[in-house]
Amino acid sequence: MDVLDKKQTILIVDDSPESIMMLGALLHMDYTIRVANNGAKALKIMESDNCPDLVLLDVMMPGIDGYEVCKRLKANLHTQNIPVIFITSKTSEEDEVRGFEMGAFDYVTKPFRPVVVKARIRTQMEQKKYRDFLVNTSYCDGLTAIANRRRFDEHYSVLWNLAIRGHSPLSLIMIDIDHFKQFNDNYGHREGDIILARIAQMLVTSLKRKTDMVARYGGEEFVCVLSNTAIAGAVNVAEKFHTDILSMQIPHAFSTSGSLVTISQGVACIVPTKNLSPETLIISADESLYKAKKGGRNRIEL
Q1: CA 176 and chain centroid, separation
Q2: What is the domain partition of the chain in residue ranges?
Q3: How many angstroms separate the CA atoms of 26 and 178, rounded?
């Protein structure tokens, strides 16, 4: 389904059952509704793979209050751009300013005025929809429909800096389809494009964590970045890639690496520091890939 046509999701976070029921009844015809009655549940939902498109967030809740929930959402790479609308009985200018400083997109006071609530939500949802559309268009590889080089470069930069702050390992896998020129020359470029797209989708499907990314790096080459992952974990991912691509059973009668389409992979790992360039890891993974290709292909080198 196109991102412009997809039904959007709202997460209502409120410790008042009456407020949840009222907002749910008001919005369920236009949006998919999810609910949480405290801040901890809200954060758990936001950590899932299916994040909502907007959060209606009560300020005053026991335990983790709305301000703290909003603060954590804005500090998280994967939730920082999701619009938050505070719902509260507080009406002072100071409270409203604090909400915006925390990163809220808008502010609605109790008791609700249904027309106002719907209008403000509609405005934020339309803006979110077109932001997502523009991001998907500019960050998506046109042929394979996975992340492109630009998207990888930005994501890699963020993960590099996070690894510096957390003193955690960052791993990279460079992936090349073996003898792809011979495939194109003998089966045709149209068939080659189809195989590129199929392999790209298989690589993406093989990943389990939403912080990990596979992108098309150029031509028949892909790159995978794995946050907070040591070399053993990266090798496990590379071995899964190897197995999953072989399981596709794509014939390649013109390959010297076997009768099926295979991949060569170069794996590298580093604990980034401020004194190191992000290119260090990329160069190392690329050198490992070169070793894999030089060593006969259809293999993994570290």
Answers
A1: 23
A2: 9-139, 149-301
A3: 56
- The one-letter code for the residue type at 35 is V
Among 154, 220, 221, 239, the active-site one is: 220
172: β partners:
225, 268
Residues 195 and 250: beta-carbon distance below 8 Å = yes
Tell me, what amino acid is at 215? Answer: A
Q: What is the CA radius of gyration of the chain?
A: 23
CATH class for domain 149-301? Answer: alpha beta
- Whether the ω angle into residue 52 lies within 30 degrees of 0, i.e. cis, is no
Q: Give the pLDDT confidence score for residue 108 in this predicted structure.
A: 86
- At the topology level of CATH, where does 9-139 sit? Rossmann fold (3.40.50)
Tokens at 258, concatenated: 């076997």
What is the pTM (predicted TM-score) of this model? 0.68
Question: What is the rounded CA–CA span in Å between residue 76 and residue 47?
Answer: 9
Compare 87 and 54 and report the one with higher pLDDT. 54
Gap between the Cα atoms of 150 and 64, Å rounded: 37
239 catalytically annotated: no
* Portion of the chain with pLDDT greater than 70, in percent: 98
